[in-house]
Amino acid sequence: MAEKVHKVSVITGAGSGIGRACALALVADGWSVVLVGRRKDTLEETAELARAGAGQGRGRGQAVPVVADITDADAVTRLFVEVGERFGRVDVLFNNAADTMPYTPTEDVDVDDWRRVLDSIATGTFLCSRAAYRMMKDQLPRGGRIINNGAPSAHVPRPDSIAFTAAKHAVAGITRSLSLDGRRYDISCGQIDIGNVTPVGREQPAVRQADGSLRVEPTMDVSHVVNMVVTMANLPVGVNIQSVTVMPTAMPYVGRG
């Protein structure tokens, strides 16, 4: 029997980085969060951090790790069946998971790398959104919210990053399509394009510039991203942040090439 909860979110790529940080914040805010990823150990680390935070009185939510490959349609179906059986609904899906690859000239991009990046970002976003959309249109109260992790590269590419750029452009198209198609079912969809986040436990790597050079760019703390995702998640039905870019002010983006 499904638990009697209202605020239920699913976060992909929840085992580390932005996904983990957003999951911890939503749990602290009282959400039940389904942590999705391919590695059981990192998902359980996130769940343990969430439990430790809740034990200190930070929130009343819970974190549930579920191992799933979001590029596998059957695995995504099983994931959302489990969400439905456990909670009875899903209020927010945060499509965050992504595989990347090193900067590579277009003519040298291996087709397997192309498929891996496109599958993890574009196909994974589609499959999870489709499954969430099906639940949201039929559940009571009806509706929900899908938040897609885009990137500045969804609008302005870096050199030698054709697979990542194509995948993030696809995410932008998915966001707009879901926004349009979801209106009649009270389903909102918005996109957060995230600039350089300060790495944890390592130096900020040099990144490719428009002239082909590499240099270290300004970064920001992940808390600024987390605050925006939590704000988007908590918007009432009928209100949407369609698109927002959160980035360091001095990061090259506008006119970067």
How would you briefly describe this protein structure?
The chain is built from six helices and nine strands. The chain is α/β, with parallel strands linked by helices and 257 residues long.
Describe the structure.
The chain has one domain (8-246): 3-Layer(aba) Sandwich (Rossmann fold), CATH 3.40.50.720. The chain is 40% helix and 17% strand. The protein contains six helices and nine strands. A seven-stranded parallel sheet has the order 3-2-1-4-5-6-9, sandwiched between helices. Strands 7-8 form a two-stranded antiparallel ribbon. Helix 1 packs across helix 6 (223-233). It is globular and about 55 Å long.
Comma- or semicolon-separated keywords:
alpha/beta, Rossmann fold, 9 strands, 257 residues, 7-stranded parallel sheet, globular
Shape: globular
SSE pattern, N- to C-terminal: EHEHEHEHEHEEEHE
In the predicted model, the low-confidence regions spanning at least 5 consecutive residues are none
Terminal Cα span: 54 Å
Query: If classified by CATH, what would the architecture be?
Result: 3-Layer(aba) Sandwich
CATH superfamily: NAD(P)-binding Rossmann-like Domain
